Amino acid sequence: MYTFSEPHSIPTEVIIRIYGELPLPDALQLAATCCRLRQVLIDNTPTIYKNLRRNVPCERYARVLLADQGGSPPHSSSVTIGDLLRLRRNSRIVEKAIEVFDRDITPNIRIPLTSIDDKFYGGKPRPLHLTPTERHRFSRSYYQVWDLLLLDQPSRHQRYRTMLLKHLYMMYEMVDLDQPIGDDSEYFPADEKRCALAEEVSDYLRFLYPDIHGVDYIDFSGQSVSMRTQGHAAIWDHCQPDLKKIVCYQWRDPEKKQVKEEEVWENTTDEE
C-alpha cells in the first residue's frame, strides 16, 4: 500500500500544488490522513493559502470576520492552521444558514410576471434555491452582520463608513434574518444586540442616503405579502435593477451634482 512517507513519495512541491487546488474542507481533510501531509500543510500554510483562498467562498469578508475573532489580519499572508480551521467552521455556519433559507424562504417566492423569469432565469421558473450570485450576496451580508455583532459601537460606526450603500441595504435585510446569526447560534432574531444593530443600521442609512443624494431615504423591502419573501428583496437577482435605481438615485436632476456610480454601487459581479 502506497504512503506519502515512503522514501520515493510525492515531492513536497507537488503536494503544495495539490493543496492549492482543493476547497478548504477537502484540504483540511487531506491533511488529516497522514503525518507527512499534515506537516506539509503546517510548514507551508501561507504559500498554500495564496492559491487555496480562491476556493474560499466570500473570502474577503470571511477574512475580516476571522480577524475580528482574533485571527490573522485580513491582508496578512501569515495564515495559520488555526485560521484555516476557524475559516472552515465559519463557512459551515454560513452554509447551514443558506440551507435553512433555501428550505423556508427561497422555494416560496412568487414571481408575478413571466417576463421576469425570461430575463433573469433563462425563461425557466425561478430556481427553488439561491442562484450563485444570490448565494454570494447572502454569504457576504451574513459575514458582515456577524462581524458587526462582535464589535463595539465606535468600531461599528467606523466599519459603516467603509461600506458601499448597496451593501448597507443588503446588510440591513440580513439583520432581520429569521435565524440565529453567528457561532454557537449566539445571536437570535430577538436578541437585544441584534435589535440594537438593526436600529443602528437603519439610523445610519437614513443619515447617509440624504447626505449622498440630497433627498430623503428611500426604503427597499420585500414585505409584500404576494412575494412571500419574509422581508427579503435586495438579495434576489430579479430585484437588482430596482435596487440599483434606488441606491444610485437614478431620478436625479441632471443639472445637480452627479454621484459616481462606483461610490455607491460596485460595478462588479456579485460573485467577486
What is the strand and helix layout of this fold?
Layout: H1 12-21, H2 24-31, H3 35-43, H4 45-52, H5 59-68, H6 81-104, H7 114-120, H8 132-150, H9 153-160, H10 165-175, H11 192-213, H12 240-247
Helix pairs in contact: 1-4, 5-8, 8-10, 10-11
The percentage of residues in β strands lies in under 5%
Main pleated sheet: none
Query: Could you state the order of secondary-structure elements as H and E?
Result: HHHHHHHHHHHH
Radius of gyration, CA atoms, in whole angstroms:
21 Å
Q: Could you list the spans in which at least 5 consecutive residues all have pLDDT below 50?
A: none
Number of strands: 0
Number of domains: 2
The rounded distance between the terminal residues' Cα atoms is 42 Å
Provide the structure class.
Answer: mainly alpha
Helix content: 40-55%
Q: How many helices?
A: 12
General shape: globular
Mean pLDDT: 88
Domain F-box: 4-52
Organism: Aspergillus vadensis (strain CBS 113365 / IMI 142717 / IBT 24658)
Protein name: F-box domain-containing protein
Describe, in plain words, how this protein is organized in 3D:
- With 272 residues, the chain is mostly helical.
- It folds into two domains: 10-55, no CATH class; 58-263, no CATH class.
- It is built from twelve helices and no strands.
- It has helices at residues 12-21, 24-31, 35-43, 45-52, 59-68, 81-104, 114-120, 132-150, 153-160, 165-175, 192-213, 240-247.
